Sequence to fold (551 residues):
Amino acid sequence: MPSTTKQRVLVADDERAIAEGLGAILSDEGYEITIAPDGEKALEELAAGSYGVALIDLKMPKIDGLALMNELQARNIATECIIITGQATIDSAVQAMREGAYDYIEKPLNQEKLNRVKALIPKALEKYAIGQKNRELATRIENLTHYGELTGESEEMRAVYQIIDAVAPSNASVLILGESGTGKELVARAVHNKSDRAKGPFFALNCAALPKDILENELFGHEKGAFTGSINEKAGAFEMASGGTIFLDEVAEMPTDIQVKLLRALETRQVRRLGGKKEISVDIRIVAATNKDLQKALADGELREDLYYRLAVVELYLPPLRERVSDVQLLANEFLARFARQNGKQLRGFEDGAWAWIHSYTWPGNVRELKNAVERAVIMARGEIVTAQDIMPRHLRAAASASANAATAAATSNGAGTTPATSNGQRGGAKKTAAKAAKGKSAKSTKR
Amino acid sequence: MPTSMPKSMPAPGDREGVAELKRLAHEVRNAMNGVAVSLEVARSRAGRGAAPAEVYPFLETASEQLELATRLHKQYTDFATTLATDGEARAARRTPIHDAPEA
Fold:
Protein backbone atom coordinates (compact mmCIF):
# COMPACT_ATOMS: atom_id res chain seq x y z
CA MET A 1 0.00 0.00 0.00
CA PRO A 2 1.40 3.39 -0.92
CA SER A 3 2.34 5.46 2.08
CA THR A 4 4.17 8.79 1.92
CA THR A 5 4.61 9.37 -1.81
CA LYS A 6 1.64 8.26 -3.84
CA GLN A 7 2.46 5.83 -6.60
CA ARG A 8 1.22 6.80 -10.01
CA VAL A 9 -1.21 4.77 -12.08
CA LEU A 10 -2.51 5.70 -15.52
CA VAL A 11 -5.98 4.59 -16.65
CA ALA A 12 -6.36 4.64 -20.44
CA ASP A 13 -9.93 4.04 -21.63
CA ASP A 14 -12.15 5.91 -24.06
CA GLU A 15 -15.28 5.02 -22.05
CA ARG A 16 -15.52 7.92 -19.63
CA ALA A 17 -17.68 6.10 -17.05
CA ILE A 18 -15.28 3.11 -16.93
CA ALA A 19 -12.15 5.26 -16.82
CA GLU A 20 -13.47 7.55 -14.10
CA GLY A 21 -14.87 4.63 -12.11
CA LEU A 22 -11.59 2.69 -12.26
CA GLY A 23 -9.75 5.90 -11.40
CA ALA A 24 -11.95 6.46 -8.34
CA ILE A 25 -11.55 2.84 -7.15
CA LEU A 26 -7.76 3.08 -7.39
CA SER A 27 -7.66 6.60 -5.98
CA ASP A 28 -9.53 5.23 -2.94
CA GLU A 29 -6.74 2.65 -2.67
CA GLY A 30 -4.25 5.50 -2.29
CA TYR A 31 -2.79 5.82 -5.79
CA GLU A 32 -2.31 8.99 -7.78
CA ILE A 33 -4.47 8.55 -10.86
CA THR A 34 -4.29 10.08 -14.32
CA ILE A 35 -6.95 9.35 -16.92
CA ALA A 36 -6.19 9.27 -20.64
CA PRO A 37 -9.17 9.16 -23.04
CA ASP A 38 -7.22 7.59 -25.93
CA GLY A 39 -3.95 5.85 -26.77
CA GLU A 40 -2.25 9.00 -28.00
CA LYS A 41 -2.87 10.89 -24.75
CA ALA A 42 -1.82 7.80 -22.79
CA LEU A 43 1.49 7.69 -24.67
CA GLU A 44 2.08 11.40 -24.03
CA GLU A 45 1.44 10.96 -20.32
CA LEU A 46 3.55 7.81 -19.97
CA ALA A 47 6.44 9.45 -21.84
CA ALA A 48 6.26 12.58 -19.70
CA GLY A 49 5.98 11.07 -16.22
CA SER A 50 6.99 7.93 -14.42
CA TYR A 51 3.98 5.67 -13.99
CA GLY A 52 4.43 2.34 -12.23
CA VAL A 53 1.32 0.83 -13.80
CA ALA A 54 -0.85 1.60 -16.80
CA LEU A 55 -4.33 0.12 -17.00
CA ILE A 56 -4.94 0.02 -20.74
CA ASP A 57 -8.11 -0.73 -22.63
CA LEU A 58 -7.24 -2.77 -25.68
CA LYS A 59 -9.69 -1.00 -28.00
CA MET A 60 -9.07 2.73 -28.03
CA PRO A 61 -9.17 5.47 -30.63
CA LYS A 62 -5.99 6.83 -32.28
CA ILE A 63 -3.57 4.25 -30.83
CA ASP A 64 -5.00 0.94 -29.62
CA GLY A 65 -3.69 -0.92 -26.57
CA LEU A 66 -1.32 -3.23 -28.47
CA ALA A 67 0.18 -0.43 -30.54
CA LEU A 68 0.58 1.60 -27.36
CA MET A 69 2.51 -1.24 -25.73
CA ASN A 70 4.75 -1.57 -28.77
CA GLU A 71 5.41 2.16 -28.73
CA LEU A 72 6.29 2.05 -25.03
CA GLN A 73 8.81 -0.70 -25.73
CA ALA A 74 10.25 1.11 -28.74
CA ARG A 75 10.72 4.29 -26.70
CA ASN A 76 12.08 2.39 -23.72
CA ILE A 77 9.37 3.72 -21.43
CA ALA A 78 9.21 1.52 -18.37
CA THR A 79 5.75 0.82 -16.96
CA GLU A 80 3.83 -2.33 -16.10
CA CYS A 81 0.81 -2.67 -18.39
CA ILE A 82 -2.43 -4.34 -17.31
CA ILE A 83 -4.68 -4.85 -20.29
CA ILE A 84 -8.46 -4.57 -20.06
CA THR A 85 -10.18 -6.50 -22.79
CA GLY A 86 -13.61 -7.52 -24.00
CA GLN A 87 -14.26 -11.18 -24.72
CA ALA A 88 -13.99 -10.60 -28.46
CA THR A 89 -10.42 -9.38 -28.11
CA ILE A 90 -9.08 -12.14 -25.87
CA ASP A 91 -6.59 -13.26 -28.54
CA SER A 92 -5.13 -9.78 -28.56
CA ALA A 93 -4.85 -9.92 -24.78
CA VAL A 94 -2.87 -13.14 -25.08
CA GLN A 95 -0.68 -11.40 -27.65
CA ALA A 96 -0.25 -8.47 -25.26
CA MET A 97 0.89 -10.88 -22.55
CA ARG A 98 3.43 -12.34 -24.96
CA GLU A 99 4.72 -8.84 -25.60
CA GLY A 100 5.28 -8.20 -21.93
CA ALA A 101 1.97 -7.04 -20.40
CA TYR A 102 1.90 -7.71 -16.67
CA ASP A 103 -1.61 -9.24 -16.79
CA TYR A 104 -5.02 -8.79 -18.33
CA ILE A 105 -8.55 -8.37 -17.05
CA GLU A 106 -11.42 -9.60 -19.10
CA LYS A 107 -14.66 -7.66 -19.20
CA PRO A 108 -17.41 -7.60 -17.87
CA LEU A 109 -15.99 -5.63 -15.00
CA ASN A 110 -18.01 -7.14 -12.16
CA GLN A 111 -17.09 -6.85 -8.49
CA GLU A 112 -14.83 -9.91 -8.63
CA LYS A 113 -12.84 -8.46 -11.57
CA LEU A 114 -12.56 -5.07 -9.91
CA ASN A 115 -11.21 -6.74 -6.78
CA ARG A 116 -8.70 -8.51 -9.01
CA VAL A 117 -7.62 -5.11 -10.43
CA LYS A 118 -7.11 -3.85 -6.87
CA ALA A 119 -5.05 -6.93 -6.01
CA LEU A 120 -2.96 -6.77 -9.19
CA ILE A 121 -1.83 -3.16 -8.88
CA PRO A 122 0.47 -3.54 -5.82
CA LYS A 123 2.09 -6.64 -7.35
CA ALA A 124 2.64 -4.84 -10.65
CA LEU A 125 4.07 -1.85 -8.78
CA GLU A 126 6.45 -4.16 -6.92
CA LYS A 127 7.66 -5.56 -10.24
CA TYR A 128 8.06 -2.03 -11.57
CA ALA A 129 10.08 -1.03 -8.47
CA ILE A 130 12.40 -4.04 -8.89
CA GLY A 131 12.82 -3.15 -12.56
CA GLN A 132 13.59 0.45 -11.62
CA LYS A 133 16.26 -0.68 -9.17
CA ASN A 134 17.79 -2.92 -11.84
CA ARG A 135 17.77 -0.10 -14.37
CA GLU A 136 19.38 2.27 -11.87
CA LEU A 137 22.01 -0.32 -11.05
CA ALA A 138 22.70 -0.94 -14.73
CA THR A 139 23.06 2.82 -15.29
CA ARG A 140 25.44 3.11 -12.34
CA ILE A 141 27.54 0.22 -13.67
CA GLU A 142 27.42 1.74 -17.17
CA ASN A 143 28.56 5.08 -15.73
CA LEU A 144 31.44 3.38 -13.96
CA THR A 145 32.78 1.88 -17.15
CA HIS A 146 31.54 4.19 -19.89
CA TYR A 147 31.40 7.86 -20.70
CA GLY A 148 29.46 8.64 -23.85
CA GLU A 149 31.06 6.52 -26.55
CA LEU A 150 34.26 6.14 -24.52
CA THR A 151 34.95 2.93 -22.63
CA GLY A 152 37.28 2.65 -19.67
CA GLU A 153 37.21 2.40 -15.90
CA SER A 154 40.89 3.02 -15.22
CA GLU A 155 42.12 5.93 -13.11
CA GLU A 156 43.61 7.44 -16.27
CA MET A 157 40.27 7.44 -18.09
CA ARG A 158 38.39 8.70 -15.05
CA ALA A 159 40.73 11.69 -15.06
CA VAL A 160 39.87 12.24 -18.74
CA TYR A 161 36.12 12.07 -17.97
CA GLN A 162 36.56 14.63 -15.18
CA ILE A 163 38.30 17.05 -17.51
CA ILE A 164 35.56 16.62 -20.13
CA ASP A 165 32.91 17.25 -17.46
CA ALA A 166 34.69 20.40 -16.37
CA VAL A 167 35.49 21.85 -19.79
CA ALA A 168 32.41 20.83 -21.82
CA PRO A 169 29.96 23.48 -20.51
CA SER A 170 32.43 26.29 -21.28
CA ASN A 171 33.25 27.62 -24.72
CA ALA A 172 36.98 27.08 -24.27
CA SER A 173 39.06 25.54 -27.06
CA VAL A 174 40.35 22.08 -26.24
CA LEU A 175 43.51 20.49 -27.59
CA ILE A 176 43.52 16.70 -27.30
CA LEU A 177 46.93 15.06 -27.23
CA GLY A 178 47.23 11.37 -27.78
CA GLU A 179 48.68 8.66 -29.93
CA SER A 180 46.91 7.42 -33.01
CA GLY A 181 44.03 5.09 -32.17
CA THR A 182 43.41 6.33 -28.63
CA GLY A 183 39.99 7.76 -29.47
CA LYS A 184 40.63 11.48 -29.83
CA GLU A 185 37.55 12.01 -32.00
CA LEU A 186 35.38 10.23 -29.41
CA VAL A 187 36.66 12.64 -26.77
CA ALA A 188 35.88 15.57 -29.08
CA ARG A 189 32.36 14.22 -29.58
CA ALA A 190 31.96 13.79 -25.82
CA VAL A 191 32.98 17.43 -25.29
CA HIS A 192 30.41 18.48 -27.91
CA ASN A 193 27.63 16.23 -26.59
CA LYS A 194 28.10 17.41 -23.01
CA SER A 195 28.08 21.07 -23.99
CA ASP A 196 25.25 23.52 -24.58
CA ARG A 197 26.06 23.13 -28.28
CA ALA A 198 24.98 19.47 -28.30
CA LYS A 199 21.95 20.26 -30.46
CA GLY A 200 24.15 22.07 -32.97
CA PRO A 201 26.32 20.39 -35.62
CA PHE A 202 29.56 18.51 -34.95
CA PHE A 203 31.91 18.84 -37.89
CA ALA A 204 35.12 16.77 -38.02
CA LEU A 205 37.95 17.48 -40.44
CA ASN A 206 41.26 15.64 -40.74
CA CYS A 207 43.88 18.26 -41.57
CA ALA A 208 46.47 15.68 -42.64
CA ALA A 209 44.20 13.87 -45.05
CA LEU A 210 43.58 16.77 -47.43
CA PRO A 211 45.89 18.68 -49.79
CA LYS A 212 46.41 22.34 -48.84
CA ASP A 213 43.98 23.89 -51.37
CA ILE A 214 41.21 21.46 -50.61
CA LEU A 215 41.70 21.85 -46.86
CA GLU A 216 41.44 25.63 -47.17
CA ASN A 217 38.31 25.26 -49.28
CA GLU A 218 36.80 22.79 -46.81
CA LEU A 219 37.50 25.10 -43.88
CA PHE A 220 36.46 28.45 -45.31
CA GLY A 221 34.35 27.62 -48.40
CA HIS A 222 34.41 29.60 -51.62
CA GLU A 223 32.38 32.01 -53.72
CA LYS A 224 31.19 31.20 -57.21
CA GLY A 225 34.05 31.75 -59.66
CA ALA A 226 36.71 31.86 -56.95
CA PHE A 227 38.82 29.44 -58.97
CA THR A 228 38.57 27.43 -62.17
CA GLY A 229 35.68 25.02 -61.89
CA SER A 230 34.00 26.72 -58.94
CA ILE A 231 30.61 26.99 -60.60
CA ASN A 232 28.70 27.28 -57.32
CA GLU A 233 29.34 28.91 -54.01
CA LYS A 234 30.15 26.59 -51.12
CA ALA A 235 29.98 27.10 -47.37
CA GLY A 236 33.02 25.94 -45.41
CA ALA A 237 33.26 23.92 -42.21
CA PHE A 238 33.21 27.07 -40.07
CA GLU A 239 29.89 28.17 -41.52
CA MET A 240 28.37 24.69 -41.52
CA ALA A 241 29.38 24.00 -37.94
CA SER A 242 28.22 27.41 -36.69
CA GLY A 243 26.27 26.94 -33.46
CA GLY A 244 28.14 23.71 -32.86
CA THR A 245 31.66 22.32 -32.65
CA ILE A 246 34.38 21.90 -35.23
CA PHE A 247 36.92 19.14 -34.64
CA LEU A 248 40.28 19.59 -36.35
CA ASP A 249 42.16 16.33 -36.20
CA GLU A 250 45.93 16.26 -36.74
CA VAL A 251 45.99 20.04 -36.53
CA ALA A 252 49.79 20.19 -36.39
CA GLU A 253 49.83 18.85 -39.97
CA MET A 254 48.01 21.93 -41.20
CA PRO A 255 50.10 24.09 -43.61
CA THR A 256 51.37 27.21 -41.80
CA ASP A 257 49.62 29.72 -44.10
CA ILE A 258 46.28 28.08 -43.36
CA GLN A 259 47.23 28.16 -39.67
CA VAL A 260 47.39 31.96 -39.98
CA LYS A 261 43.88 32.09 -41.45
CA LEU A 262 42.64 29.70 -38.78
CA LEU A 263 44.12 31.84 -36.04
CA ARG A 264 42.42 34.92 -37.47
CA ALA A 265 39.09 33.10 -37.65
CA LEU A 266 39.46 32.00 -34.03
CA GLU A 267 40.26 35.50 -32.85
CA THR A 268 37.63 37.42 -34.80
CA ARG A 269 34.99 34.70 -35.00
CA GLN A 270 34.61 35.69 -38.63
CA VAL A 271 35.56 33.91 -41.82
CA ARG A 272 35.88 34.99 -45.43
CA ARG A 273 35.21 32.50 -48.20
CA LEU A 274 37.85 31.99 -50.89
CA GLY A 275 37.24 34.65 -53.51
CA GLY A 276 34.82 36.43 -51.22
CA LYS A 277 34.85 39.96 -49.84
CA LYS A 278 32.28 39.57 -47.14
CA GLU A 279 33.17 38.63 -43.56
CA ILE A 280 30.81 35.98 -42.23
CA SER A 281 30.28 35.75 -38.48
CA VAL A 282 30.44 32.27 -37.03
CA ASP A 283 29.58 30.94 -33.58
CA ILE A 284 31.99 28.10 -33.21
CA ARG A 285 33.80 26.03 -30.63
CA ILE A 286 37.08 24.46 -31.65
CA VAL A 287 38.33 21.12 -30.46
CA ALA A 288 41.64 20.14 -32.04
CA ALA A 289 43.81 17.07 -31.74
CA THR A 290 47.29 15.96 -32.55
CA ASN A 291 49.43 12.88 -32.12
CA LYS A 292 52.64 14.85 -32.67
CA ASP A 293 55.26 15.77 -30.12
CA LEU A 294 54.03 19.33 -29.64
CA GLN A 295 57.26 20.77 -28.24
CA LYS A 296 59.09 19.49 -31.28
CA ALA A 297 56.40 20.73 -33.65
CA LEU A 298 56.59 24.18 -32.04
CA ALA A 299 60.40 24.20 -32.09
CA ASP A 300 60.44 23.10 -35.74
CA GLY A 301 57.91 25.78 -36.63
CA GLU A 302 55.38 23.20 -37.87
CA LEU A 303 52.79 24.55 -35.46
CA ARG A 304 52.55 28.28 -34.88
CA GLU A 305 52.99 29.17 -31.25
CA ASP A 306 50.18 31.77 -31.27
CA LEU A 307 47.78 29.19 -32.74
CA TYR A 308 48.89 26.63 -30.17
CA TYR A 309 48.03 29.01 -27.30
CA ARG A 310 44.69 29.78 -28.90
CA LEU A 311 43.83 26.08 -29.35
CA ALA A 312 45.25 24.77 -26.09
CA VAL A 313 43.13 26.75 -23.63
CA VAL A 314 42.55 23.33 -22.11
CA GLU A 315 44.97 20.54 -22.93
CA LEU A 316 43.65 17.02 -22.56
CA TYR A 317 46.02 14.08 -22.62
CA LEU A 318 44.49 10.82 -23.78
CA PRO A 319 46.65 7.94 -22.50
CA PRO A 320 47.72 5.12 -24.81
CA LEU A 321 46.28 1.68 -24.06
CA ARG A 322 49.56 0.44 -22.56
CA GLU A 323 49.16 3.12 -19.86
CA ARG A 324 45.70 1.91 -18.92
CA VAL A 325 46.07 -1.86 -19.04
CA SER A 326 43.18 -2.34 -16.62
CA ASP A 327 40.83 -1.27 -19.44
CA VAL A 328 42.07 -3.85 -21.93
CA GLN A 329 39.83 -6.66 -20.69
CA LEU A 330 36.74 -4.42 -20.56
CA LEU A 331 37.40 -3.16 -24.08
CA ALA A 332 38.15 -6.63 -25.48
CA ASN A 333 34.94 -8.06 -24.02
CA GLU A 334 32.91 -5.15 -25.31
CA PHE A 335 34.34 -5.47 -28.83
CA LEU A 336 33.79 -9.23 -28.74
CA ALA A 337 30.11 -8.79 -27.85
CA ARG A 338 29.68 -6.08 -30.50
CA PHE A 339 31.33 -7.95 -33.37
CA ALA A 340 29.78 -11.30 -32.43
CA ARG A 341 26.38 -9.61 -32.66
CA GLN A 342 27.25 -7.93 -35.95
CA ASN A 343 28.54 -11.19 -37.44
CA GLY A 344 25.74 -13.35 -36.04
CA LYS A 345 28.17 -15.52 -34.04
CA GLN A 346 27.57 -17.15 -30.68
CA LEU A 347 30.86 -16.57 -28.87
CA ARG A 348 31.25 -17.16 -25.15
CA GLY A 349 34.55 -15.34 -24.70
CA PHE A 350 38.33 -15.68 -24.98
CA GLU A 351 40.29 -18.77 -23.97
CA ASP A 352 42.97 -18.37 -21.28
CA GLY A 353 45.74 -18.40 -23.87
CA ALA A 354 44.05 -15.60 -25.79
CA TRP A 355 43.75 -13.53 -22.60
CA ALA A 356 47.39 -14.18 -21.82
CA TRP A 357 48.37 -12.87 -25.23
CA ILE A 358 45.99 -9.90 -25.06
CA HIS A 359 47.46 -8.87 -21.71
CA SER A 360 51.05 -9.45 -22.82
CA TYR A 361 50.80 -7.37 -25.97
CA THR A 362 51.45 -3.62 -25.69
CA TRP A 363 48.95 -2.55 -28.37
CA PRO A 364 51.03 0.11 -30.13
CA GLY A 365 48.02 0.88 -32.32
CA ASN A 366 45.99 1.44 -29.14
CA VAL A 367 42.22 0.90 -28.91
CA ARG A 368 41.87 0.93 -32.69
CA GLU A 369 44.32 -1.98 -32.98
CA LEU A 370 42.58 -3.94 -30.22
CA LYS A 371 39.22 -3.33 -31.88
CA ASN A 372 40.48 -4.53 -35.25
CA ALA A 373 42.17 -7.55 -33.66
CA VAL A 374 38.96 -8.58 -31.92
CA GLU A 375 36.90 -8.06 -35.06
CA ARG A 376 39.29 -10.26 -37.02
CA ALA A 377 39.27 -12.84 -34.21
CA VAL A 378 35.48 -12.96 -34.19
CA ILE A 379 35.45 -13.55 -37.94
CA MET A 380 38.20 -16.21 -37.73
CA ALA A 381 36.89 -18.03 -34.65
CA ARG A 382 35.65 -21.51 -35.46
CA GLY A 383 34.25 -22.52 -32.09
CA GLU A 384 32.47 -20.75 -29.27
CA ILE A 385 35.72 -19.44 -27.80
CA VAL A 386 38.27 -17.07 -29.33
CA THR A 387 41.74 -18.63 -29.21
CA ALA A 388 45.16 -16.98 -29.12
CA GLN A 389 45.64 -18.01 -32.73
CA ASP A 390 42.40 -16.24 -33.70
CA ILE A 391 43.40 -12.94 -32.17
CA MET A 392 47.13 -12.75 -32.88
CA PRO A 393 48.16 -10.82 -36.00
CA ARG A 394 49.63 -13.14 -38.65
CA HIS A 395 53.23 -11.94 -38.31
CA LEU A 396 53.14 -12.39 -34.52
CA ARG A 397 51.46 -15.76 -34.84
CA ALA A 398 54.35 -17.02 -36.98
CA ALA A 399 56.91 -15.56 -34.55
CA ALA A 400 55.15 -17.03 -31.52
CA SER A 401 54.91 -20.39 -33.22
CA ALA A 402 58.63 -20.32 -34.14
CA SER A 403 59.65 -19.37 -30.60
CA ALA A 404 57.43 -22.09 -29.18
CA ASN A 405 59.11 -24.63 -31.44
CA ALA A 406 62.54 -23.31 -30.46
CA ALA A 407 61.60 -23.52 -26.78
CA THR A 408 60.40 -27.08 -27.24
CA ALA A 409 63.60 -28.03 -29.04
CA ALA A 410 65.76 -26.40 -26.35
CA ALA A 411 63.81 -28.10 -23.59
CA THR A 412 64.23 -31.46 -25.32
CA SER A 413 68.01 -31.08 -25.76
CA ASN A 414 68.83 -29.31 -22.47
CA GLY A 415 66.07 -30.50 -20.24
CA ALA A 416 65.22 -26.89 -19.37
CA GLY A 417 63.11 -24.21 -21.14
CA THR A 418 64.48 -20.99 -22.56
CA THR A 419 62.48 -18.10 -23.90
CA PRO A 420 63.86 -16.54 -27.03
CA ALA A 421 62.73 -13.08 -28.05
CA THR A 422 59.48 -13.30 -29.95
CA SER A 423 58.13 -10.21 -31.51
CA ASN A 424 57.58 -6.50 -31.31
CA GLY A 425 55.01 -5.13 -28.93
CA GLN A 426 55.04 -8.01 -26.47
CA ARG A 427 55.71 -7.55 -22.79
CA GLY A 428 58.80 -9.58 -21.79
CA GLY A 429 57.25 -11.31 -18.78
CA ALA A 430 54.39 -12.72 -20.75
CA LYS A 431 56.28 -14.07 -23.74
CA LYS A 432 56.35 -17.55 -22.25
CA THR A 433 52.58 -17.58 -21.81
CA ALA A 434 51.99 -16.44 -25.35
CA ALA A 435 54.42 -19.01 -26.68
CA LYS A 436 52.65 -21.66 -24.63
CA ALA A 437 49.31 -20.53 -25.97
CA ALA A 438 50.61 -20.66 -29.53
CA LYS A 439 52.11 -24.05 -28.89
CA GLY A 440 48.93 -25.39 -27.35
CA LYS A 441 46.95 -24.18 -30.31
CA SER A 442 49.33 -25.69 -32.88
CA ALA A 443 49.08 -29.01 -31.10
CA LYS A 444 45.31 -28.80 -31.26
CA SER A 445 45.40 -27.74 -34.92
CA THR A 446 47.53 -30.75 -35.81
CA LYS A 447 44.96 -33.04 -34.25
CA ARG A 448 42.14 -31.66 -36.41
CA MET B 1 -25.06 -23.21 -49.77
CA PRO B 2 -28.28 -24.08 -47.95
CA THR B 3 -31.44 -23.15 -49.79
CA SER B 4 -33.14 -21.86 -46.68
CA MET B 5 -31.84 -20.03 -43.61
CA PRO B 6 -32.76 -20.38 -39.94
CA LYS B 7 -35.30 -17.72 -38.99
CA SER B 8 -33.06 -15.96 -36.44
CA MET B 9 -29.91 -15.86 -38.61
CA PRO B 10 -29.29 -12.98 -41.00
CA ALA B 11 -28.66 -13.90 -44.60
CA PRO B 12 -25.04 -14.13 -45.83
CA GLY B 13 -25.50 -10.82 -47.65
CA ASP B 14 -26.20 -9.06 -44.37
CA ARG B 15 -22.58 -8.64 -43.30
CA GLU B 16 -23.13 -4.96 -42.68
CA GLY B 17 -26.19 -5.77 -40.60
CA VAL B 18 -24.23 -8.27 -38.51
CA ALA B 19 -21.42 -5.75 -38.03
CA GLU B 20 -23.98 -3.20 -36.82
CA LEU B 21 -25.43 -5.77 -34.42
CA LYS B 22 -21.93 -6.47 -33.05
CA ARG B 23 -21.28 -2.78 -32.61
CA LEU B 24 -24.54 -2.29 -30.73
CA ALA B 25 -23.81 -5.31 -28.53
CA HIS B 26 -20.36 -3.87 -27.77
CA GLU B 27 -21.92 -0.53 -26.85
CA VAL B 28 -24.44 -2.25 -24.56
CA ARG B 29 -21.61 -4.15 -22.84
CA ASN B 30 -19.60 -0.95 -22.44
CA ALA B 31 -22.54 0.82 -20.83
CA MET B 32 -23.13 -2.15 -18.50
CA ASN B 33 -19.44 -2.12 -17.55
CA GLY B 34 -19.86 1.58 -16.78
CA VAL B 35 -22.80 0.71 -14.52
CA ALA B 36 -20.83 -2.03 -12.73
CA VAL B 37 -17.74 0.09 -12.14
CA SER B 38 -19.73 3.13 -10.97
CA LEU B 39 -21.85 1.02 -8.61
CA GLU B 40 -18.71 -0.58 -7.18
CA VAL B 41 -17.27 2.88 -6.41
CA ALA B 42 -20.56 3.95 -4.80
CA ARG B 43 -20.86 0.68 -2.87
CA SER B 44 -17.33 0.75 -1.46
CA ARG B 45 -17.46 4.47 -0.63
CA ALA B 46 -20.88 4.16 1.05
CA GLY B 47 -19.56 1.11 2.90
CA ARG B 48 -16.80 3.11 4.53
CA GLY B 49 -19.13 6.00 5.36
CA ALA B 50 -17.89 8.46 2.73
CA ALA B 51 -19.65 11.83 2.39
CA PRO B 52 -22.66 11.77 0.04
CA ALA B 53 -20.86 14.13 -2.34
CA GLU B 54 -18.28 11.40 -2.91
CA VAL B 55 -20.94 8.78 -3.61
CA TYR B 56 -23.72 10.52 -5.56
CA PRO B 57 -21.77 11.36 -8.72
CA PHE B 58 -21.10 7.66 -9.26
CA LEU B 59 -24.74 6.74 -8.63
CA GLU B 60 -25.66 9.41 -11.19
CA THR B 61 -23.19 7.93 -13.67
CA ALA B 62 -24.50 4.42 -13.00
CA SER B 63 -28.02 5.66 -13.66
CA GLU B 64 -27.00 7.43 -16.90
CA GLN B 65 -25.12 4.36 -18.09
CA LEU B 66 -28.10 2.13 -17.30
CA GLU B 67 -30.40 4.41 -19.31
CA LEU B 68 -27.90 4.34 -22.14
CA ALA B 69 -27.71 0.54 -21.97
CA THR B 70 -31.52 0.30 -22.08
CA ARG B 71 -31.70 2.58 -25.14
CA LEU B 72 -28.94 0.69 -26.91
CA HIS B 73 -30.54 -2.63 -26.06
CA LYS B 74 -33.81 -1.46 -27.60
CA GLN B 75 -31.95 -0.40 -30.74
CA TYR B 76 -30.29 -3.79 -30.79
CA THR B 77 -33.54 -5.76 -30.52
CA ASP B 78 -35.32 -3.53 -33.07
CA PHE B 79 -32.47 -3.91 -35.51
CA ALA B 80 -32.19 -7.65 -34.92
CA THR B 81 -35.93 -8.07 -35.56
CA THR B 82 -35.70 -6.10 -38.81
CA LEU B 83 -32.71 -8.11 -39.88
CA ALA B 84 -34.44 -11.40 -39.07
CA THR B 85 -37.60 -10.37 -40.98
CA ASP B 86 -35.53 -9.29 -44.00
CA GLY B 87 -33.62 -12.54 -43.75
CA GLU B 88 -36.82 -14.56 -43.83
CA ALA B 89 -38.06 -12.65 -46.84
CA ARG B 90 -34.78 -13.19 -48.63
CA ALA B 91 -34.72 -16.85 -47.68
CA ALA B 92 -38.23 -17.24 -49.11
CA ARG B 93 -37.11 -15.60 -52.36
CA ARG B 94 -34.18 -17.96 -52.61
CA THR B 95 -36.22 -21.10 -51.96
CA PRO B 96 -36.45 -23.08 -55.23
CA ILE B 97 -39.99 -23.46 -56.65
CA HIS B 98 -39.99 -27.27 -56.36
CA ASP B 99 -39.15 -26.91 -52.65
CA ALA B 100 -41.90 -24.37 -52.03
CA PRO B 101 -44.80 -25.59 -49.88
CA GLU B 102 -47.91 -26.40 -51.83
CA ALA B 103 -50.46 -23.63 -51.90
The two ends of chain A are 64 Å apart (CA to CA).
